[in-house]
Amino acid sequence: MRLAAHHRARGDQVHFTRRVRRELFEPAYDLVYGSAIFRFSADRVERFRHEFPGAIVGGTGSGSDATVEELIGDAVELDYSLYPAFDSSIGFTQRGCRLSCKFCVVPAKEGRPRAVATAAEIWRGPPWPKNLHLLDNDFFGQADWQARIDEIRAGGFKVSFTQGINVRAVTPAVAEALAGVEYRCNEFRRRRLYTAWDNLKDEDTFFRGVDMLEAAGVPARHLMAFMLIGFDKRETWDRIHHRFDRMVERGIKPYPMPFDQTNRDLKRFQRWAVLGIHRLVPFSEYRAGFKTKRAAARRSDGDLFDGEAA
Ligand code: SF4
Q: What is the mean pLDDT of residues 296-310?
């Protein structure tokens, strides 16, 4: 969206596509950009490079360090015409993160937290709804977070912290600030705060943050917690279920995120959790159903973890 705004401002025509293959009658372009977030799309990146030799490809999944800032500077204007059905506003109030989780590229790519825009700068103005998708990875890591909260409240904005807030770093002041804003889910329909519990060892810290949020007026049922599964070398089904069960008991909605997207059992666990099947049938039974079908088809894909699923 930033690249498109930059080129349109220069009088260029912009064509946007999600396809990696050149279409039959597609013209030649002066310049081609591609973006890939996830490493598991490496084969699509390779195909794209083959179809569009000379394309500038960026993103964490591209294997390239190229950034939009290097190409066009710090301009933050966005071309929303690429997404005509989208009526919210999207952007970052800050970049960077205070933490350094082993699996994450943000600290290496963005460094320490720094402010980059105000809420008013992110909103695209009337007649668009005052719905802000904040892509910040560490909203409360910026020195001026209170000023941003004040703007959000005074401006009557609804805000979706789409990348989540770090519940491990919640303080009473942060909890009070969150309780005072109209935080919403990505569709802006329901009250929702996104967060994460990725490591079992963070159990006490995680629930200390949940307690603080509840004390300030953010009920646990408003929380959706992403849980990375299959990354920790000591991961077992018991450890996964412990995290999952503790969150469900508390009213939190867990959202498992398999580290290895090719692991079918972890993907099944994700589906079982996200679709609410866990309320109807234990995972062991759900998983056994697939195993029975696989056996009948004389195929086997083995187990990732030691121990039985609960
Ligand atoms: S808190 Fe989030 S953004 Fe920061 S390093 Fe960890 S995963 Fe990355």
A: 51
pLDDT tens track for 226-238: 999 999 999 999 9
Task: Write down the number of H helices and E strands in the chain.
Answer: 11, 11
Report the alpha-carbon distance of residue 145 to residue 125 in Å, rounded.
Answer: 22
Residue 103 pLDDT = 81
The residue nearest atom 1 of ligand 1, judged by CA position, is 99
Q: How far is the CA of 243 from the centre of ligand 1 (A)?
A: 19
* 49 DSSP 8-state letter: H
The yes-or-no verdict on residue 300 having pLDDT over 80 is no
Characterise 276 by phi-psi region: left (phi > 0), alpha (psi -120 to 50), beta (else): left
- Rounded to two decimals, the pTM is 0.86
3-state secondary structure 220-269: HHHEEEEEEECCCCCCCHHHHHHHHHHHHHHCCEEEEEECCCCCHHHHHH
195 lines ligand 1 (CB under 6 A): no
